[in-house]
Amino acid sequence: RFAYVNGRYLPHDDAAVHIEDRGFQFADGVYEVVTIVGGRFADLEGHLARLDRSLRELRMPWPVKPTSLRLIMRELAARNGVRDGMVYVQVTRGVAPRDFRFPADTAPTLVLTCRRSRFQTARQLAEGVSVITIPDIRWLRRDIKTVGLLAQSLGKQKAAEAGAYEAWQVDPDGTVTEGCSSNAWIVTAEGTLVTRPASNLILNGITRLSLLRIARDLGIPVEERPFTVAEAHAAREALMSSAGSFALPVTRIDGKPVGEGRPGPLTLRLRAAYLADVGAPDPV
Ligand code: PLP
Fold first, then answer.
1. What is the mean pLDDT of residues 188-195?
2. CATH class for domain 122-278?
3. What is the rounded distance in angstroms from the CA atom of residue 261 to the CA atom of residue 245?
4. Where do the domains of the chain lie?
């Protein structure tokens, strides 16, 4: 297995960065996870566009040209022989003596890893997954995909300990912001697909954007607005989206079934349409 660090492909176990990398000390870095399905990168353009935005928001330069990054991603996937899995791309501000202020002229650190993945089990797809709800304790720039993921890590751990797949984070006003590593959606009793609008309060998922486009193309009624946990409980369907989960049915929220407690038709239609759009069969 190979990883990429600042210009070199290294055996995964030997790949390392310096102890004074600002990613390590300040979580001063951004990342992307791009899924490979059937040998194809899913939504690659969207992920590169969001990486560009994250870098600009943190005033970091591109570590290599975007065209070079594409080549590195392909090369790493090929070297690892991955046809179903993901590439992880991380850029930090680089190595500098520990100081909160930005270093004057430090080269960014670029790290890529790649691994095989089965994404979900067949059972998770057939039965849907469960989520718990937790308070959203994150900062107010959730639109930047930074490596500062402690709140999400705590949330996912809590979900795992509760036997759930994901935790939906809830703002003090009672509205669901998003999952710890996914966006949250419901289908109302009227059949409208609802997800929170992009703002500083959520990460604008690339899968989210593609699903919105696909849903509109299919003529499915869509509303981008916040929804409450109570509304989710009363919904006909619930689902989550991310690069690795595509559109995945959520059939239990805090232990209570959503609708009839089975994956909903609209969710499954969106998942199929998304994968058709990527150009690959469902890997699950
Ligand atoms: N929201 C959060 C907080 C995430 O971490 C992620 C992905 O990891 C998403 C949403 C989904 O984004 P994407 O569809 O681009 O994977």
1. 98
2. alpha beta
3. 19
4. 2-116, 122-278
